[in-house]
Amino acid sequence: LLAVSLVGCAEVGPGDPSDAGYLMALFDQVREAPERVAHIGVRRLDLGYEIDGQEQTLSYLERIVTDGLGNYSLDTLEALSPVSPAFFDLQVDRAGFYFLYRDFRVRDLAAFLENYAVTDLGRPIDYLGRSAWEFEVGAKHVEAPLHYRLTLDVDTGILLSSSEIGPSGEVYSRLAYESIEFEPNLSGEVYYQPDNQETPAVLGALLDATLGFAVRPPTALPPGYHLLGITSVVDNSGSPWVKFTYTDGVEPLFFLEGKPQGPKQGVKVGPGTVLKLQETEPDTVVWSQVGPVTWLQGKFGDVTRFAVGRLPKEELFDLVESSL
Question: Is 210 left (phi over 0), alpha (psi -120 to 50) or beta?
Fold first, then answer.
């Protein structure tokens, strides 16, 4: 009832974040803002993750453009830390995935309200000339939770800055606008065109026949997660896969099933982002972790299964096991 009553709400404007109704309307704006609020901005992204026991840092500037109708572009402007020669080409390829999945989003308002605690930091601030509130948001269902520190533009719901903070206080990432213009002149802008073949799918005999095996979705989801959508995707050889996307209201969780034609194929979990298959023995599982993100791959018979999300590997093991 709460989620239904908030759908399509108007801009809420400055108010009192200690009021539950105002807070829920504000975060409903946060849910809609990435596609609904036309703006141009320059943002700085700082990442600090541990990969294979080594601290890795990355900082760069990017330009974001949205037209308020679902079209967008995301272009890397300048690297502020050492990068590989392929960095800028990869950034172009991954722009769609970054826009959709990299940053904090309220993906489902009802699930967000159920699974996350919101703390008003009590400091209304001026941010780039905009009236803004600061909040901390943390998951209720994780023992050692990640949490976010957010700066929200109260008129639009745009996140002016967001920091992803680990259980020991380490800052995994920080994204912050350095300039922003609302209702800009968008003439001449070129928007991102997705390169992945991803179409809505329906479970059943037709999908099973297309894939060449009986689809078995997970039956044991991590606490707080629910199904957001089912789509079909293809790998680099053109073989079809089925992709399940789940969310706890904020975090996306992907589960994929397919029959790859070779061990070095890759399957796209989103626009421009490929999961490379590892060579594994039947009925074995391999996994890796980059900061808070874990991916897990297992081969069971001739069907390969992937799980990717900001969760401990144990929960991804349980997810994959429940699909067997």
Answer: alpha
Separation CA 98–CA 95 (nearest Å): 5
Task: Using a cut of 0.85, tell me whether the model's pTM lies above it.
Answer: yes
pLDDT digits (tens, 9 = 90+) for 239-279: 889 999 999 999 999 999 998 776 555 665 665 555 666 66
Say how far residue 274 (Cα) sits from the centre of its chain.
15
